[in-house]
Amino acid sequence: MMTENFNYITSRGLPGGPNQEITYVTGVASVEGYRYDSPDKNNSVNLIESGNISMSENDGSPLKKGPLLGIDNLGNKQIMTPGTNYSFPGDKVLEIPMAQKGNGEFRDFKGIPFLSSIAAGDFANHQHHNSRLADLYRYYAGRPLEDDILQVSNTKPTKAEDPDAKYISLNKNQQLVQEVIDNYNRVSNGNFYTNKTRPDLILDSDDNEKQLDKNNYKVTGYREVDDIDDYQLNAIGNYFTGFGEDENGTYISYYDKFDQAGGIGGSINFGEKLGLTKPFEIYDRIYVEKDKDSGKYIQKKKGGGQLPKAQYAGEGVKIDDDVVKNSFQRQWLDSPMYKQILANEVGPSDDADFITFGRKSNLDNVPITMMEGEHEEDKGVAATSNSATGRITFYKPSQDGLDEGHAYENTAEHEIGHSGDRVGEDTLKKYKDNLSIGDRIALANASLSYRPSSVFLPNYVSMANQAYNYITNQETNDLEDRATQIYKNLLSERLIPTKTIKRFNDERLNIEGYDDNGSPLVNNYDQAYYKRYDDEGNPIVSFNKDGTIQEGSIEIYKDDWADYVSEPTEARTRLNTIRSAAKDLGIYDPFTEKLTPEKFQELKSRVKDLNRGEESSYNPLLQLQDIYSDDEIFDMLNTISDTSKVSDSKLRYAQKGGSSTNPYTIYMNYINGIDDSDTAKNIFDKLNRIHYKDAKERGMGVANYIATNVITDS
Predict the structure, then answer these.
(1) CB of 316 within 8 A of CB of 408?
(2) How many other C-beta atoms are found inside a 10 Å radius of the C-beta of residue 269?
């Protein structure tokens, strides 16, 4: 988006002298500057019509272009580094790249503009034209590069015939690095894709994956994806991977000869024959070590330690006897953050020990069935969890495209979460069998009036009461209270705290904003509307003192899908599936740390990665975003049920409902509890109705709008 023309002149050497060099640069002002998706990212300079400069991409990540020199219209200069914000005294800033990325100087071949690009497949409608590895095609065409992913490799194949040959490294693309490691882990365990097992990826038997010798394999880099950037190895296709060791340690290597790239010519390679394109070789080494838990190779950090998994290759998880024990859902129950969050969740009627014990015991022995076919009633069902027994059944959609005995990880984690939340007869039996001596005495002491008719337990009142009081020095009412809590536990339907259940239900109905007709919007599925309107067609709305709309002013038509996703066990399992994927993607460690706003932005920018190879129809974050705001999801991931926090971006849909002649003074007195008269209440409602449209247009609560814009300005 351009706004105005500009001229920029640079001068080198003594002014007027024989060595003076003057460069004239003309152009137009830019809004997006050198951001990755900016139309101006390839300009030699960009003029920003502001003194405030952000060196971040639109998703919040550091600017990919690298450091820039900023010069404002007052002559102030500053080197600006990615990820930082800068403020200049002037109101216009000229941005100049410190080092022009992708100048292609390490490429000795220079192609012909336009023709070489067409021959290489680097044109607008080609699937790789705007991909993260589009520079492979530009390099093949001998054209200038636009990113800094391609580097000259510092390593060469052990059996390289030409010691002076130049190889291109793709190690700066962390997603590709992880895909190479994942593929090696797969084929080194004997899991090869062929035109029979994966006809969706391999059309001809000549392209079948196979082992070449002890340490080297032929591998396919193709995957079917919705977005070409979902799988980086698609850019090079079939390649070779190997295993070795050098002075820097154990490594996994990758090699490919990048030749005909899908442009004009097909298998005849007209581009190469006409000299429009030139093949090159890709090779580098990824230094790895074995993961202690999984036994698989993972990337080794510089200076020791392990890098987190950066990208899933869609291989799923093996469904075996250890799948539940090794799942995120089970490990989460032993983590410090789980204990901290649960402490925030439980209320007066909840028992944290019972909830954790029940979840753990439920996951101790989960029966699992792998079905080859589809669900009888709904072919789209991927898996189910039986609420009575905890049995998980995986159907065909959860296994499509995966190796035998595997299921997609999101589906597995989701159903394991359901099996953990249930309260079955076996759950209660284990709970009763493992009650402490103190709890048993409390139950024995409890009077029959405190005991639900559905619970049968022996009652040894007098002796137990005396013994318990003597041993614990507690009063009888403590026994009754504890017994009552145990009875509540035994009558529980789900192992989810009541505060969490209330929060999932309440925040589903928070008002996100208003449509063009002034009707409230609550989420993507439920429909909200005002119950009453006046003669002029304006809604009649009553407000609480905090500016929230009183119950009864709005009716909600609840959608079945919203009912389903906001069901507490469904919402909770989606939150844990998000945590699980975020951990595996290396975004943050939910076991030990809270999610920061910056990490949440990264999580949202990588929303497709949360699928972990599964079809996008089950994406836990996208589904929660259908019902809840980003602020609410962020809070849920950190606190679950801290109901004191209400998103600033939403007006809560409430579930309850000195003298002055200045109506606005009376308004504020009513809010502050100084004047509770009917007159003040009527003025409060009237002013809210008058100003609610203006407040809506500014995205503010009515009371906040009146206090900051009407009263302050009057």
Answers:
(1) yes
(2) 17
Residues 330, 262: Cα–Cα separation, whole Å: 47
Per-residue pLDDT tens for 12-59?
333 334 343 333 344 457 888 888 888 888 776 788 989 999 999 888
Say if residues 409 and 612 touch (Cβ distance below 8 Å). yes
CA distance 11 to 20: 7
Phi, psi angles (nearest 5°) of residue 24: -105, 125
Q: Which pTM value belongs to this model?
A: 0.45
Q: Give per-residue pLDDT as tens, 98-135.
A: 644 343 445 778 888 778 888 887 776 667 667 888 88
pLDDT-wise least confident of 1-15, 290-304, 530-544? 1-15
Residues 6+ apart with CB under 8 A from 46: 27, 29, 30, 33, 34, 40, 94, 95
**Residue 129 domain-assigned?**
yes
DSSP E strands in 165-248: the ranges are 167-169, 210-211, 216-219, 239-246
**Shared domain check, 119 and 89:** no
Those residues whose C-beta lies under 8 Å from the C-beta of residue 513, and which sit 6 or more positions away, are 520, 521, 696, 699
Q: Is 21 helix (H, G, I), strand (E, B) or coil?
A: strand
Domain extent for 479:
427-490
Residue 232 lies in a domain: yes
